[in-house]
Structure formats: structure tokens, C-alpha cells
Amino acid sequence: MDNWYVLSVKSGYEETVCEIINKTCNKDEYYAFTPRIKLRYKNLDNNIKIYKPMFQGYIFIKSNYKPEKSLTELMPIIKLSNCIIKLIGKDNLENMCLDTTEKDYILRFCDDKYLLKSSRGIIVGDKIIIDSGPLRGLESNIKKIDRHKRKALIELSFLGDIRKINVPLEIVIKVVDRVVN
Questions:
Q1: Under a CB-based contact definition with an 8 Å cutoff, are residues 48 and 40 in contact?
Q2: Under CATH, which number does the domain 1-116 receive?
Q3: 91: helix, coil or strand?
Q4: How many CA atoms lie within 13 A of 116 on its CB side?
Q5: C-alpha–C-alpha distance, residues 115 and 118, integer Å
Q6: Domain assignments of the chain as residue spans, ordered by start
Q7: Contact yes or no for 5/88 (Cβ under 8 A)
């Protein structure tokens, strides 16, 4: 499926809208999903894992159809649901599909179930070195690291804007750079 379309939905209803579209449409023609991040929280002695959308308030629809056909087939579903706000780019059919570079960038972070993969790295002085995972080679995109919550704040281009998102990152060790005289 070549084309990705983006729907703006009410925050918190991403999974519900994906289920509605996947049940309503033929899965060979349309597939709705939202990339998710696995977060770990420690509550007393329990480790709790929850899944949050990578882009809150947005879902993606994969399709082989051109924008004109997709627009005519998706609009009845969009109008019937009170959770869907709008189809992004429907006013300009040429820009309705997600850009290939943005699509590839999102796929770099996700596995086959659209769950963000974790990265591992070390800190040497004030420099971050990622040795495995999707952040490898993208160290310059990291804006902030929270070692205790095992996540990094990165900037990426999405729908023409720069978005800041949290991605899983485990820092194995922090080495202090010392000057030897």
C-alpha cells in the first residue's frame, strides 16, 4: 500500500477510530493504524506498561488508491463519526498523501505492528552515542534525555511542522570525560 492519508481525530479516540475504519472498509483497500510508544511506569513495586499514540490526535490510513477515490470512499465514514475531526489535506488533493520522506522516517522507528522500537546508547561527557535502534545516526535530533523514564525527546517533521515526540531510549552507562595532565 503506497499512499498514507492522515486523519485528525479527537485525542484519546485514536484506537477507536482505527477499529471503526478497519471494520467498515475492506482491509485489502484501506488499513488504519496509529504508531504507538510503549511507556514503562513504576507504581510501588509493579512495573506498568502502557501504550500511547506517537502523534496524539492523528491516525494514518494506508491505501493503494489515488486521493480522489480515497476521498470519495472515506468521506461518508468521516461524516458519520463524531470522533473524526477531518481528513488532512482534502482541500488540496496533490498534497493529501503523506510525504514519502515523512513516511520513511516514521517507519524507521516502528516495527511491523507500528510499535516504536527502543534504542540503546551511552553518554560520554556531554555527547550521546547510540549503538543500536532507530535513533542510531540521528543523535543530532535528540533534544533532551530522561534517563530515569528511559525516553528521549526528538524533533521531526510531520505535516509541514516540526513536532517534538518522546521515543524509547535506554542509556546503558554515563561516562564522565576527564582531562588527564
A1: yes
A2: 3.30.70.940
A3: coil
A4: 24
A5: 9
A6: 1-116, 118-181
A7: yes
- Give the pLDDT score at 179: 54
139: cell is: 543523535
> What proportions of the chain, in percent to the nearest 5, are helix, strand and coil?
25, 45, 35
**Buried/exposed code over 105-130 (b: 16+ C-beta within 10 A; e: otherwise):** bbeebbeeebbbebbbbebeeeebeb
Helix ranges (DSSP H) in 25-122: 67-80, 100-109
Q: Collapse the DSSP code of 176 into the 3-class scheme (helix H, G, I; strand E, B; otherwise coil) and give the result.
A: coil
CB atoms within 10 A of CB 54: 23
Where in 71-177 does DSSP place strands (E)? 84-87, 119-124, 127-132, 142-146, 151-158, 161-175
Q: Among 108, 98, 103, 113, which residue's Cα sits nearest to residue 36?
A: 113
* Strands of the sheet with 58-63, listed across from one edge: 30-33, 58-63, 3-9, 84-87
**How many residues are given for the chain?**
181
List, for residues 63-118, the tens digit of each pLDDT value: 888 878 877 888 888 888 888 888 887 677 666 788 888 888 888 888 888 988 88
Q: Which amino acid belongs to residue 68? A: E
Angle in degrees, CA 56, 62, 64, rounded to 5: 160
Contact predicate 116/110, CB 8 Å: yes
